Amino acid sequence: MKEGIHPTINETTITCTCGAVYDVLSTVKAIKVGICAACHPFFTGEQRFIDTAGRVDKFAQRYGSVRARRVAPKAGAAAEAPAAEVAAEA
Predict the structure, then answer these.
(1) What is the pLDDT of residue 60?
(2) In CA terms, which of 2, 4, 9, 40 is 20 to 30 Å from 34?
(3) How far are the Cα atoms of 6, 8, 16, 27 from residue 3, in angstroms, in the given order?
(4) Residue-by-residue pLDDT tens, the chain, 90 positions
(5) 30 within 8 A of 12, measured Cβ to Cβ
(6) Domain span at residue 23?
(7) Pairwise CA distance, residues 67 & 69, whole Å
(8) What is the CATH number of the domain that holds 35?
(9) What is the pTM assigned to this prediction?
(10) 31: in domain
């Protein structure tokens, strides 16, 4: 390997917001992460709703409810379609 072109490798501490601490080798001395294998739903098997910086509340204030609404088809439009088919057959 050539001298002076490679970054120095340090023993690094990775700290998660859940409190998990990992010791690894990296070019960065300290790393802070928001989610890790100890708290990620894929690895834990539980679903948690993570609201980052109140985005869900901000959306609810702007557009109303955060629940998805199912829009039913109009009763008039559904009744008109079979009538047109019957007229075409006659």
Answers:
(1) 78
(2) 9
(3) 7, 11, 34, 16
(4) 688 898 889 999 999 988 889 999 999 988 998 888 888 766 677 765 666 667 777 777 888 766 666 667 667 655 555 555 555 555
(5) yes
(6) 10-84
(7) 6
(8) 4.10.80.400
(9) 0.44
(10) yes
- Report the distance separating Cα 62 and Cα 75, nearest Å: 30
Residue from 37, 9, 38, 36 nearest 25 by CA: 9
| DSSP state at residue 39 | T
| Confidence at residue 22, expressed as pLDDT on a 0 to 100 scale | 92
Residue 41 lies in a domain: yes
* Alpha carbon distance 13, 4 (integer Å): 25
Q: Is residue 4 part of a domain?
A: no
CA distance 90 to 16: 72
Closest to 23 (Cα-Cα) out of 10, 35, 34: 10
